[in-house]
Protein backbone atom coordinates (compact mmCIF):
# COMPACT_ATOMS: atom_id res chain seq x y z
CA UNK A 1 0.00 0.00 0.00
CA UNK A 2 1.43 3.36 -1.06
CA UNK A 3 1.03 6.61 0.90
CA UNK A 4 -1.59 7.76 -1.62
CA UNK A 5 -3.54 4.52 -1.23
CA UNK A 6 -3.23 4.70 2.56
CA UNK A 7 -4.56 8.26 2.52
CA UNK A 8 -7.60 7.03 0.62
CA UNK A 9 -8.00 4.17 3.11
CA UNK A 10 -7.99 6.66 6.00
CA UNK A 11 -10.67 8.76 4.27
CA UNK A 12 -12.72 5.61 3.65
CA UNK A 13 -12.52 4.82 7.38
CA UNK A 14 -13.79 8.32 8.18
CA UNK A 15 -16.63 7.91 5.69
CA UNK A 16 -17.64 4.57 7.22
CA UNK A 17 -17.64 6.09 10.72
CA UNK A 18 -19.80 8.97 9.48
CA UNK A 19 -22.21 6.60 7.73
CA UNK A 20 -22.47 4.54 10.94
CA UNK A 21 -23.39 7.66 12.92
CA UNK A 22 -20.25 7.51 15.08
CA UNK A 23 -18.85 10.80 13.79
CA UNK A 24 -20.81 13.88 12.82
CA UNK A 25 -18.32 15.51 10.43
CA UNK A 26 -17.87 16.33 6.77
CA UNK A 27 -15.39 13.89 5.23
CA UNK A 28 -12.29 15.95 4.35
CA UNK A 29 -10.82 16.03 0.86
CA UNK A 30 -7.39 14.85 2.01
CA UNK A 31 -5.85 12.78 4.80
CA UNK A 32 -2.15 13.37 5.34
CA UNK A 33 -0.02 10.32 6.17
CA UNK A 34 3.63 10.69 7.13
CA UNK A 35 6.42 8.65 8.69
CA UNK A 36 5.84 8.36 12.46
CA UNK A 37 7.30 11.14 14.56
CA UNK A 38 9.07 10.83 17.93
CA UNK A 39 7.19 8.41 20.13
CA UNK A 40 5.36 6.91 17.17
CA UNK A 41 5.58 3.44 15.68
CA UNK A 42 4.66 1.46 12.58
CA UNK A 43 5.14 2.45 8.95
CA UNK A 44 3.00 5.61 8.78
CA UNK A 45 1.06 7.94 11.04
CA UNK A 46 -1.89 10.28 10.48
CA UNK A 47 -3.26 13.23 12.43
CA UNK A 48 -6.75 12.88 10.98
CA UNK A 49 -8.26 12.45 14.47
CA UNK A 50 -6.81 15.80 15.59
CA UNK A 51 -8.10 17.40 12.40
CA UNK A 52 -11.65 16.12 12.97
CA UNK A 53 -11.86 16.59 16.75
CA UNK A 54 -13.28 20.11 16.77
CA UNK A 55 -15.94 19.60 14.06
CA UNK A 56 -16.87 16.27 15.68
CA UNK A 57 -17.18 17.92 19.11
CA UNK A 58 -15.11 15.12 20.67
CA UNK A 59 -11.57 14.83 22.06
CA UNK A 60 -8.99 13.76 19.44
CA UNK A 61 -8.27 10.54 21.33
CA UNK A 62 -11.94 9.57 21.17
CA UNK A 63 -12.07 10.26 17.40
CA UNK A 64 -8.97 8.08 16.98
CA UNK A 65 -10.63 5.28 18.97
CA UNK A 66 -13.66 5.46 16.66
CA UNK A 67 -11.54 5.27 13.52
CA UNK A 68 -9.14 2.54 14.66
CA UNK A 69 -11.46 -0.49 14.08
CA UNK A 70 -12.27 0.66 10.57
CA UNK A 71 -8.57 1.00 9.74
CA UNK A 72 -7.62 -2.36 11.25
CA UNK A 73 -10.21 -4.04 9.00
CA UNK A 74 -8.71 -2.56 5.83
CA UNK A 75 -6.72 -4.76 3.49
CA UNK A 76 -2.97 -4.27 3.78
CA UNK A 77 -3.04 -2.92 7.37
CA UNK A 78 -1.73 -5.21 10.09
CA UNK A 79 -2.11 -2.98 13.15
CA UNK A 80 -3.06 0.53 14.28
CA UNK A 81 -1.69 1.99 17.53
CA UNK A 82 -2.89 5.17 19.25
CA UNK A 83 -0.21 7.45 20.69
CA UNK A 84 -0.15 10.94 22.15
CA UNK A 85 -3.30 13.05 22.01
CA UNK A 86 -4.73 11.08 19.09
CA UNK A 87 -2.10 10.03 16.56
CA UNK A 88 -2.97 6.88 14.58
CA UNK A 89 0.19 4.85 13.90
CA UNK A 90 -0.36 2.37 11.07
CA UNK A 91 1.62 -0.81 10.38
CA UNK A 92 1.35 -2.43 6.95
CA UNK A 93 1.71 -6.07 5.92
CA UNK A 94 5.42 -5.83 5.13
CA UNK A 95 4.91 -4.36 1.65
CA UNK A 96 5.43 -0.66 2.31
CA UNK A 97 8.93 -0.20 0.79
CA UNK A 98 8.27 -2.15 -2.42
CA UNK A 99 4.84 -0.59 -2.92
CA UNK A 100 6.25 2.87 -2.28
CA UNK A 101 8.98 2.40 -4.88
CA UNK A 102 6.52 0.99 -7.40
CA UNK A 103 4.33 4.06 -6.92
CA UNK A 104 7.24 6.48 -7.34
CA UNK A 105 8.59 4.71 -10.42
CA UNK A 106 5.10 4.61 -11.94
CA UNK A 107 4.51 8.33 -11.38
CA UNK A 108 8.10 9.39 -12.10
CA UNK A 109 8.82 13.07 -11.56
CA UNK A 110 5.07 13.63 -10.99
CA UNK A 111 5.08 11.56 -7.79
CA UNK A 112 3.17 13.51 -5.15
CA UNK A 113 1.05 15.39 -7.71
CA UNK A 114 -2.72 15.51 -7.37
CA UNK A 115 -4.51 13.09 -9.65
CA UNK A 116 -6.84 15.81 -11.01
CA UNK A 117 -7.77 19.47 -10.64
CA UNK A 118 -9.68 20.31 -7.49
CA UNK A 119 -11.24 23.46 -8.94
CA UNK A 120 -9.42 25.92 -6.66
CA UNK A 121 -8.60 29.29 -8.23
CA UNK A 122 -5.74 31.15 -6.56
CA UNK A 123 -4.16 34.48 -7.46
CA UNK A 124 -0.62 35.14 -6.29
CA UNK A 125 0.38 38.79 -6.32
CA UNK A 126 3.78 40.25 -5.54
CA UNK A 127 5.52 43.62 -5.44
CA UNK A 128 8.17 44.83 -7.88
CA UNK A 129 10.85 42.63 -6.33
CA UNK A 130 12.92 39.84 -7.90
CA UNK A 131 12.73 37.43 -4.98
CA UNK A 132 8.98 37.89 -4.59
CA UNK A 133 8.44 37.15 -8.30
CA UNK A 134 10.63 34.01 -8.19
CA UNK A 135 8.86 32.77 -5.06
CA UNK A 136 5.44 33.46 -6.61
CA UNK A 137 6.30 31.58 -9.79
CA UNK A 138 7.62 28.54 -7.89
CA UNK A 139 4.64 28.60 -5.52
CA UNK A 140 2.35 28.66 -8.56
CA UNK A 141 4.07 25.58 -10.00
CA UNK A 142 3.62 23.72 -6.72
CA UNK A 143 -0.02 24.80 -6.37
CA UNK A 144 -0.72 23.56 -9.90
CA UNK A 145 0.88 20.23 -9.02
CA UNK A 146 -1.74 19.94 -6.27
CA UNK A 147 -4.68 20.60 -8.58
CA UNK A 148 -5.13 24.37 -8.24
CA UNK A 149 -5.66 26.87 -11.05
CA UNK A 150 -3.22 29.73 -10.45
CA UNK A 151 -2.68 33.22 -11.84
CA UNK A 152 0.45 35.22 -10.96
CA UNK A 153 0.65 39.02 -11.10
CA UNK A 154 3.32 41.55 -10.19
CA UNK A 155 3.08 45.29 -9.58
CA UNK A 156 6.00 45.75 -11.98
CA UNK A 157 8.47 43.47 -13.75
CA UNK A 158 11.95 43.77 -15.24
CA UNK A 159 12.42 41.94 -18.59
CA UNK A 160 15.98 40.96 -17.61
CA UNK A 161 14.48 38.67 -14.95
CA UNK A 162 13.07 36.50 -17.71
CA UNK A 163 16.29 36.64 -19.72
CA UNK A 164 18.49 35.71 -16.75
CA UNK A 165 16.27 33.41 -14.67
CA UNK A 166 13.46 32.38 -17.01
CA UNK A 167 10.91 33.79 -14.56
CA UNK A 168 7.55 35.01 -15.83
CA UNK A 169 4.20 36.21 -14.49
CA UNK A 170 0.76 36.10 -16.09
CA UNK A 171 0.08 39.83 -15.81
CA UNK A 172 1.71 43.07 -14.67
CA UNK A 173 -0.14 45.73 -12.72
CA UNK A 174 -2.85 45.74 -10.04
CA UNK A 175 -4.26 42.30 -9.17
CA UNK A 176 -7.56 41.23 -10.68
CA UNK A 177 -10.52 40.75 -8.30
CA UNK A 178 -9.94 37.01 -7.93
CA UNK A 179 -10.37 35.25 -4.59
CA UNK A 180 -8.51 33.93 -2.78
CA UNK A 181 -5.75 36.42 -3.50
CA UNK A 182 -2.41 36.04 -1.71
CA UNK A 183 0.26 38.74 -1.73
CA UNK A 184 3.75 37.32 -1.30
CA UNK A 185 6.32 39.61 0.34
CA UNK A 186 9.44 37.61 1.26
CA UNK A 187 12.44 39.52 2.60
CA UNK A 188 14.10 40.98 -0.52
CA UNK A 189 17.50 39.77 -1.68
CA UNK A 190 20.42 42.15 -1.25
CA UNK A 191 21.36 44.10 -4.35
CA UNK A 192 25.06 43.49 -3.78
CA UNK A 193 26.11 40.98 -4.91
CA UNK A 194 23.48 40.91 -7.64
CA UNK A 195 21.72 37.51 -7.61
CA UNK A 196 21.36 37.58 -11.41
CA UNK A 197 25.10 37.06 -11.76
CA UNK A 198 24.72 33.56 -10.32
CA UNK A 199 22.85 32.28 -13.37
CA UNK A 200 19.42 30.69 -13.54
CA UNK A 201 19.77 27.60 -11.34
CA UNK A 202 21.98 28.99 -8.56
CA UNK A 203 20.06 32.28 -8.38
CA UNK A 204 16.71 30.54 -8.14
CA UNK A 205 18.05 28.28 -5.39
CA UNK A 206 19.54 31.23 -3.50
CA UNK A 207 16.16 32.99 -3.54
CA UNK A 208 13.95 29.94 -2.87
CA UNK A 209 15.87 27.86 -0.32
CA UNK A 210 15.70 30.29 2.65
CA UNK A 211 12.43 30.77 4.52
CA UNK A 212 10.51 33.91 3.42
CA UNK A 213 11.43 35.77 6.62
CA UNK A 214 15.17 35.13 6.12
CA UNK A 215 17.33 37.37 3.97
CA UNK A 216 18.89 35.24 1.21
CA UNK A 217 22.61 35.11 0.59
CA UNK A 218 23.62 35.72 -3.01
CA UNK A 219 27.35 35.06 -2.90
CA UNK A 220 29.51 32.57 -4.77
CA UNK A 221 28.82 29.83 -2.20
CA UNK A 222 25.92 28.75 -4.44
CA UNK A 223 28.33 28.06 -7.33
CA UNK A 224 30.92 25.88 -5.59
CA UNK A 225 30.94 22.22 -6.61
CA UNK A 226 31.42 20.70 -3.18
CA UNK A 227 29.43 19.21 -0.30
CA UNK A 228 29.14 22.53 1.53
CA UNK A 229 26.70 23.67 -1.17
CA UNK A 230 23.20 22.15 -0.66
CA UNK A 231 22.23 22.77 -4.30
CA UNK A 232 25.31 20.86 -5.44
CA UNK A 233 24.42 17.92 -3.18
CA UNK A 234 20.89 17.75 -4.56
CA UNK A 235 21.95 17.97 -8.21
CA UNK A 236 24.90 15.61 -7.67
CA UNK A 237 22.65 13.01 -6.04
CA UNK A 238 20.31 13.20 -9.03
CA UNK A 239 23.16 12.88 -11.52
CA UNK A 240 24.51 9.86 -9.60
CA UNK A 241 21.14 8.10 -9.87
CA UNK A 242 21.15 8.64 -13.63
CA UNK A 243 24.70 7.32 -13.89
CA UNK A 244 23.71 4.22 -11.92
CA UNK A 245 20.87 3.51 -14.35
CA UNK A 246 23.26 3.84 -17.31
CA UNK A 247 25.84 1.59 -15.68
CA UNK A 248 23.20 -1.00 -14.77
CA UNK A 249 22.05 -1.05 -18.39
CA UNK A 250 25.64 -1.74 -19.43
CA UNK A 251 25.65 -4.67 -16.99
CA UNK A 252 22.32 -5.84 -18.45
CA UNK A 253 20.12 -5.58 -15.39
CA UNK A 254 17.18 -3.34 -14.55
CA UNK A 255 15.42 -2.04 -11.46
CA UNK A 256 12.92 -4.25 -9.64
CA UNK A 257 11.39 -2.94 -6.38
CA UNK A 258 12.04 -5.18 -3.41
CA UNK A 259 13.27 -5.13 0.19
CA UNK A 260 16.29 -2.94 0.94
CA UNK A 261 17.75 -2.92 4.45
CA UNK A 262 19.29 -0.06 6.40
CA UNK A 263 17.58 2.75 4.47
CA UNK A 264 14.60 3.66 6.66
CA UNK A 265 15.56 7.34 6.77
CA UNK A 266 15.73 7.48 2.99
CA UNK A 267 12.43 5.61 2.52
CA UNK A 268 10.76 7.92 5.03
CA UNK A 269 12.01 10.98 3.13
CA UNK A 270 10.68 9.62 -0.17
CA UNK A 271 7.33 8.73 1.37
CA UNK A 272 7.11 12.27 2.75
CA UNK A 273 7.20 13.93 -0.69
CA UNK A 274 3.39 14.13 -1.18
CA UNK A 275 2.95 15.70 2.27
CA UNK A 276 5.74 18.20 1.61
CA UNK A 277 4.22 19.24 -1.72
CA UNK A 278 0.79 19.65 -0.13
CA UNK A 279 2.25 21.76 2.71
CA UNK A 280 4.36 23.86 0.33
CA UNK A 281 1.23 24.54 -1.73
CA UNK A 282 -0.96 25.33 1.28
CA UNK A 283 1.58 27.80 2.72
CA UNK A 284 2.84 29.14 -0.64
CA UNK A 285 6.29 28.11 0.59
CA UNK A 286 8.70 26.71 -2.03
CA UNK A 287 11.42 26.77 0.64
CA UNK A 288 9.78 23.73 2.26
CA UNK A 289 10.27 21.74 -0.93
CA UNK A 290 13.85 22.98 -1.38
CA UNK A 291 14.83 21.91 2.12
CA UNK A 292 13.09 18.55 1.67
CA UNK A 293 15.16 17.89 -1.46
CA UNK A 294 18.29 18.44 0.62
CA UNK A 295 16.97 15.91 3.15
CA UNK A 296 16.39 13.34 0.39
CA UNK A 297 19.81 13.93 -1.17
CA UNK A 298 21.65 13.74 2.15
CA UNK A 299 19.90 10.46 3.01
CA UNK A 300 20.62 9.04 -0.45
CA UNK A 301 24.27 9.93 -0.97
CA UNK A 302 25.72 7.35 1.49
CA UNK A 303 23.48 4.66 -0.05
CA UNK A 304 24.17 5.21 -3.75
CA UNK A 305 27.68 3.63 -3.79
CA UNK A 306 26.12 0.31 -2.68
CA UNK A 307 23.81 -0.06 -5.70
CA UNK A 308 26.01 -1.72 -8.35
CA UNK A 309 27.80 -5.08 -8.14
CA UNK A 310 31.47 -4.90 -7.24
CA UNK A 311 34.32 -6.78 -8.87
CA UNK A 312 33.22 -10.16 -10.18
CA UNK A 313 29.91 -9.98 -8.30
CA UNK A 314 26.88 -10.89 -10.43
CA UNK A 315 23.75 -8.69 -10.43
CA UNK A 316 21.23 -10.11 -7.98
CA UNK A 317 17.72 -9.38 -6.74
CA UNK A 318 19.29 -7.18 -4.06
CA UNK A 319 21.06 -5.09 -6.70
CA UNK A 320 17.84 -4.72 -8.68
CA UNK A 321 16.00 -3.61 -5.53
CA UNK A 322 18.72 -1.08 -4.68
CA UNK A 323 18.64 0.22 -8.24
CA UNK A 324 14.87 0.71 -7.94
CA UNK A 325 15.42 2.75 -4.80
CA UNK A 326 18.11 4.83 -6.53
CA UNK A 327 15.82 5.50 -9.49
CA UNK A 328 13.03 6.50 -7.10
CA UNK A 329 15.43 8.99 -5.50
CA UNK A 330 16.20 10.39 -8.93
CA UNK A 331 12.51 10.77 -9.75
CA UNK A 332 11.78 12.64 -6.52
CA UNK A 333 14.77 14.96 -6.91
CA UNK A 334 14.01 15.64 -10.58
CA UNK A 335 10.37 16.36 -9.83
CA UNK A 336 11.21 18.71 -6.99
CA UNK A 337 13.89 20.62 -8.89
CA UNK A 338 11.55 21.02 -11.87
CA UNK A 339 8.88 22.58 -9.63
CA UNK A 340 11.50 25.05 -8.42
CA UNK A 341 12.45 25.87 -12.02
CA UNK A 342 15.91 24.36 -11.61
CA UNK A 343 17.61 21.95 -14.00
CA UNK A 344 18.10 18.33 -12.90
CA UNK A 345 21.25 17.31 -14.81
CA UNK A 346 21.98 13.77 -15.96
CA UNK A 347 25.71 14.52 -15.79
CA UNK A 348 27.51 16.71 -13.26
TrEMBL record:
<dbReference type="InterPro" id="IPR009080">
    <property type="entry name" value="tRNAsynth_Ia_anticodon-bd"/>
</dbReference>
<dbReference type="Pfam" id="PF05746">
    <property type="entry name" value="DALR_1"/>
</dbReference>
<dbReference type="Pfam" id="PF03485">
    <property type="entry name" value="Arg_tRNA_synt_N"/>
</dbReference>
<dbReference type="InterPro" id="IPR036695">
    <property type="entry name" value="Arg-tRNA-synth_N_sf"/>
</dbReference>
<keyword id="KW-0547">Nucleotide-binding</keyword>
<dbReference type="InterPro" id="IPR008909">
    <property type="entry name" value="DALR_anticod-bd"/>
</dbReference>
<dbReference type="InterPro" id="IPR001278">
    <property type="entry name" value="Arg-tRNA-ligase"/>
</dbReference>
<protein>
    <recommendedName>
        <fullName>arginine--tRNA ligase</fullName>
        <ecNumber>6.1.1.19</ecNumber>
    </recommendedName>
</protein>
<keyword id="KW-0067">ATP-binding</keyword>
<dbReference type="InterPro" id="IPR005148">
    <property type="entry name" value="Arg-tRNA-synth_N"/>
</dbReference>
<keyword id="KW-0436">Ligase</keyword>
<feature type="domain" description="DALR anticodon binding">
    <location>
        <begin position="234"/>
        <end position="348"/>
    </location>
</feature>
<feature type="domain" description="Arginyl tRNA synthetase N-terminal">
    <location>
        <begin position="4"/>
        <end position="92"/>
    </location>
</feature>
Amino acid sequence: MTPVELSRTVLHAVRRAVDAGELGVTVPARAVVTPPGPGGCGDYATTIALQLARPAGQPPRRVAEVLRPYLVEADGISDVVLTGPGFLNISLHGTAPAALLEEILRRGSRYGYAEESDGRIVQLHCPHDLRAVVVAEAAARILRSQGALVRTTAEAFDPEWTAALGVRVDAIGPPAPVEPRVTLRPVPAPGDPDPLRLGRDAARWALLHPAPHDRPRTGDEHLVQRESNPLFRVRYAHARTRALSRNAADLRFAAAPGPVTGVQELLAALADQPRVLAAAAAHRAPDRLARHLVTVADAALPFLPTVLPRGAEKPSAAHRARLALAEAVGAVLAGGLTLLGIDAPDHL
